[in-house]
């Protein structure tokens, strides 16, 4: 069955082959690669609307993944179009391949139905994001990429440790089977999984990398990180803790505490900044806290409200950082 994910990853392979042929034929012009990248994103978006998501082992479509992945593809088209119009993709085809890979990783995060496949999808998104941050190859971009890489390694180690504890407590990694709970190791594992995913979602106190990376990165890349990447992280938390894990007062209290600390601490830090981009970065962090409140309440209505809020602030973040790019 045709679906957007297959088209996207086939497009990545096609872009690599076309670029290799370009080098073999000594063709200097690279604009057609950008046309191909945009066409892949547009065709994937149209296919998403017409046919929905793929369903394979470990990556299964759900009742909401259709809308979220369609939203991610639409937002990626907007961001890439702006980058191209602003000259941000000129000079190399590597950015096109990394951008498609990052979008594909974000979509697989949404489709993950297993904790291990979720970790693989997050790593795919993260590795591509390192390259996007360092694309301009200046000292400040290198510093931002190293900070992002270091914190991502730590968060992935924590996430994998949490996944191992969840497996020890439940005997499964599938989201549909996590009701088989051995309480102590399971809860400990859940805490570590929350911490690992909180780095990607920029929730306090796991936000430390975000202001520095957002400020040092090209604003177009910051728009991607603050919208598409963060949306994927928050949706991963929703998929695990609302659709897979039974509600409990312990998890609800933990989530609400993280949400409130994220909101108030990031707002306080924003008031003492003297650079606009850092203020915008802390504002983006606080928005993740507002979205996280709905998940902490563990009701269907609150989670739907969180998803709607995630969509809203993702669009706003992307447009704000893209607009900031015009004044850099």
SSE topology:
Blueprint: H1 4-24, H2 31-51, H3 65-85, H4 94-111, H5 115-133, H6 139-170, H7 183-201, H8 209-216, H9 219-241, H10 249-271, H11 276-297, H12 300-325
From the structure above, extract its key features:
mainly alpha, 328 residues
Structure description:
The protein contains 12 helices and no strands. The longest helix has 32 residues, at 139-170. Helix content is 77%, strand content 0%. The chain is mostly helical and 328 residues long.
What's the quick description here?
The protein has 328 residues and is mainly alpha-helical. Helix content is 77%, strand content 0%.
N to C succession of SSEs: HHHHHHHHHHHH
Distance between the termini: 45 Å
Biggest pleated sheet: none
Share of residues in helices: over 70%
Task: Characterize the overall form.
Answer: globular
Tally of contiguous helical segments: 12
Classification by helices and strands: mainly alpha
């Amino acid at each position: 069955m045709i679906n957007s994910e297959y088209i996207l990853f086939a497009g990545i392979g096609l872009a690599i082959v076309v670029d290799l042929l370009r080098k073999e034929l000594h063709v200097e012009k690279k604009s057609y690669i950008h046309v191909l990248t945009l066409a892949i994103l547009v065709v994937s978006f149209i296919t998403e609307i017409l046919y929905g998501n793929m369903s394979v082992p470990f990556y299964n479509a759900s009742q909401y993944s259709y809308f979220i992945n369609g939203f991610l593809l639409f937002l990626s088209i907007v961001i890439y179009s702006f980058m191209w119009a602003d000259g941000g993709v000129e000079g190399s085809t590597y950015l096109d391949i990394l951008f498609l890979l990052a979008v594909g990783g974000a979509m697989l995060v949404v489709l993950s139905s297993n904790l291990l496949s979720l970790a693989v999808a997050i790593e795919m998104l993260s590795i591509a994001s390192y390259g996007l941050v360092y694309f301009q190859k200046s000292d400040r971009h290198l510093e931002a990429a190293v900070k992002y890489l270091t914190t991502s390694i730590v968060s992935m180690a924590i996430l994998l440790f949490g996944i191992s504890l969840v497996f020890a407590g439940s005997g499964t990694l599938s989201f549909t089977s996590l009701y088989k709970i051995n309480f102590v190791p399971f809860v400990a594992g859940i805490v570590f999984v929350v911490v690992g995913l909180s780095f990607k979602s920029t929730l306090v106190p796991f936000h430390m990398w975000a202001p520095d990376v957002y400020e040092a990165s090209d604003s177009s890349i910051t728009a991607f990180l603050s919208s598409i990447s963060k949306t994927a992280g928050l949706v991963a938390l929703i998929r695990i803790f609302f659709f897979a894990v039974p509600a409990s007062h312990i998890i609800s209290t933990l989530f609400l505490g993280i949400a409130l600390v994220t909101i108030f601490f990031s707002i306080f830090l924003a008031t003492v900044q003297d650079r606009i981009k850092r203020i915008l970065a802390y504002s983006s962090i606080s928005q993740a806290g507002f979205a996280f409140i709905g998940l902490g309440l563990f009701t269907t209505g609150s989670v739907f409200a969180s998803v709607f809020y995630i969509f809203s602030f993702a669009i706003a973040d992307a447009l704000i950082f893209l607009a900031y790019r015009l004044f850099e």
